[in-house]
Amino acid sequence: MSTLPKVAWIGLGIMGSPMSENLIKAGYQVTGFTLEQEKLDRLAAAGGSVAGSIAEAVRDADVVVTMVPASPQVEAIAYGPDGILENAKSGALLVDMSSITPQTSVDLAKAAKDKGIRVLDAPVSGGEAGAIEAVLSIMVGGEQADFDEAKPLLEALGKTIVLCGPHGSGQTVKAANQLIVAVNIQACAEAVVFLEKSGVDLKAALDVLNGGLAGSTVLTRKKDNFLGRDFKPGFRIDLHHKDMGIVTDAARNVGAALPVGAVVAQLVASLRAQGDGGLDHSALLRAVERLSGDQV
C-alpha cells in the first residue's frame, strides 16, 4: 500500500490532464473529475480512477487539486452542497492551481478554514509543454506548514516551487508572470514582422537573438510557433485575456501603473474580438500582421 496521500483532481484540461498523469507516474493514487468524458477516459487509461461527481472525487482525498479556467469556475466547484468544501473531509488540503484573482483565493481560504480545510493557491507557469515535462514554475500562497506538506506532490509537477507569501500571493505573482509573458510575446511578434518585412532570414535571426540579451524562455518556447504560424493552443488567447484583466485590476487596486501592460491587454482583447480567442497566445503575431497591412 502506498503511503502517499490520496489525491482528488478536479479539472482535466490542457494543463490538468498531463499534470494529473505526472502524479500517477510518481506513485500517487489519483481520482479525477471533469465534465468531458474523453478526459476521464484518458485519466483512466493512465492509471487513475474516475469519479462521477466532485463530491465522489473528494470524499476520501487527503489532497484536492483543482485546475480550472478562472475564478467563476473555482467558485462553482468549491462552494455549494455539491462542492469541495461541503464534501471534502476535515483536515484535507486544497491546492488550487488555477489562475484566478488574488481576492478569490483569499476568500476561498477563509471559507475553507471554517470547514477545517486548508488551502494553498498554487498557480503555474510553463504552458502545456511545461506541464507534460513536469518542469512548471509553481508560485504558492498560504501557510508554511501546508506548503511543506504539499511540496513533495508539487515536485512531481514542477521544477521551481516557491512559497511567495500568505493566501493570494501565488495569484499575485502569477498575474505579474502573465504581464511579463504577454509583453514579451508582443515584443517578439513585432520583431518577427519587422524582420520578415526587412527580408532577413527569420530562423537565423531568431536563433542569434535568442542567444543574446533578447533571448527568453518565451522566445525559446514560441519560436517554432512564429516560424510555422502554428497557433495550436498551448495557452489560449481567451485565458490570457482573462489574466490581463486580473493583473490590470489588481494593479489598479494597489496603485501600480502598467502603461505597457495596458496596451498589450488591449491588443490581446482585440485579437480575441477578431475571433482568435481559441488560438495560442503566440497568435499575437496575427494582430501585428493585421496592423502592418497583411491579410491574415
From TrEMBL:
Q: Where is the 3-hydroxyisobutyrate dehydrogenase-like NAD-binding domain?
A: 168-287
Return the EC number: 1.1.1.60
Molecular function terms from GO: 2-hydroxy-3-oxopropionate reductase activity
One Pfam annotation reads: NAD_binding_11
Task: Using the record's annotation, list all stretches that form the 6-phosphogluconate dehydrogenase NADP-binding domain.
Answer: 6-165
Q: Which keywords are on file for this protein? A: NAD, Oxidoreductase
Q: Which family does it belong to?
A: Belongs to the HIBADH-related family.
Q: What is this protein called?
A: 2-hydroxy-3-oxopropionate reductase
